[in-house]
Amino acid sequence: MKGLELSRRYFETYGKPMLTELVKQFPELQNSFAAGLVGHGSECLGFDDVLSCDHDFGPAFCLWLSRPLYEKYGKVCQDAYDRLPKEFAGFPARRTGVFGQGRIGVLCLEDFYYGLIGREDAPETNLEWLALPESRAALAVNGEVFLDDPGLFGAVRRRLNAYYPEDVRVKKIAARAAAMAQSGQYNYGRLCRRGEWTAAFLSMQEFIKNTCSMVHLLNRSYTPYYKWMHRSLKELPVLPEIYDLLDQLSMPFDSRSAWREAKEEDFLLGVINTRDTRAVLMETICQLVIREMKKQGLSRAEDPYLEPHAISATEQIRDPQIRSLQILEG
User: Fold this and answer.
1) Which letter does DSSP use for residue 185 in this model?
2) Are 282 and 179 in contact (CB under 8 A)?
């Protein structure tokens, strides 16, 4: 059973009756609870499997209260939560690792959001949105909310789900395009020519990371942190083929021989070593991204190199503060 389903069933079976009893004892808590499973953990993304069950997994849920009610009733509610059965549906009690503290149980709503995105509410200005890391936003909109009587939890979540303002999204796309050009189309080949193989590998990693972010941005979806940024591409409707291309890119390949044995006629446009499968794959990905940027009206450039498309995208940003930022910022 997936972690989200386990959490939902556990809440329906034991959580709801617990809330009914708490309201009987403390009528002020009527219509004050939000409950669900959101935040850290592969189960919140729906990516959990058998291997995920060895830590931070088991019957549990989050119960959120606004700060005034949390300060008044948080301990009482936590005591009630702690008395709930520890085993459910054949799953043992949740084993919480050193990094898994504070993910479930009774939580202050404002503190919960602050812990995820560094603020108690969604950003307001473009610069505030630009400063919001994709991986942190992804934590705040994942999982599932089972109950939200006051509507406070969902209000923040809806604003985050509305995604980055368009000027911010375009700035981030421009930054990723510039980084992909720099790391994959330019530096990787130059480093291979120099025999700097570790640096070339790091350059390819930078390309992969920025490509994952680029595909999410083109889908208007927040990029999860590094462990799941590639896996999550499977779920996206725009450029799903890049998932397999990145998989191929990470496969073992003898780049040294490909460059040592390369002749002048092996270089496409005098730059791309067609003997190097990795170089060809990165170029293929860049052309797919360029095509999608043009399809979305984000670039008017006509060039196989991604950097001019980054510049073209930047020129379309209306907010002068955002448009004037350095090309790689975002």
Assistant:
1) I
2) no
CA 7 to chain centre: 22
pLDDT of residue 94 exceeding 90: no
98 pLDDT higher than 60 = no
Residue 175 in contact with residue 310, Cβ under 8 Å? yes
Q: Is 134 helix (H, G, I), strand (E, B) or coil?
A: helix
Alpha helical stretches, state H, 219-316: 241-249, 255-260, 277-295, 306-315
Please give the structure tokens belonging to residue 40. Answer: 């850290």
pLDDT band at 56 (very low <50, low <70, confident <90, very high): low
Neighbours of 9 (CB within 10 A): 16
124-142 residues labelled b (16+ CB within 10 A) or e (exposed): eebeebbebebbbbbbbbb
Mean pLDDT of the chain: 93
Q: What is the per-residue pLDDT for 53?
A: 57
Lowest-confidence pick of 45-49, 63-67, 120-124, 187-191: 45-49
Tell me how many domains the chain contains: 2
- Same domain, yes or no: 180 and 156: no
User: Are 97 and 201 within one domain?
Assistant: no
- Domain enclosing residue 22, as ranges: 3-161
- H helices present in the chain, as ranges: 3-10, 16-25, 42-45, 67-82, 109-117, 126-130, 134-141, 152-161, 166-180, 188-194, 197-218, 241-249, 255-260, 277-295, 306-315, 320-323
Overall pTM > 0.70 = yes
- Please, what is the Cα angle at 280 between 277 and 286, to 5 degrees? 140
**Domain co-membership, 8 together with 111:** yes
* Statement to judge: residues 157 and 122 lie in one domain: yes
Cα separations in angstroms, 169 against 165, 172, 308, 325: 6, 5, 18, 14
Mean pLDDT along residues 160-188: 97
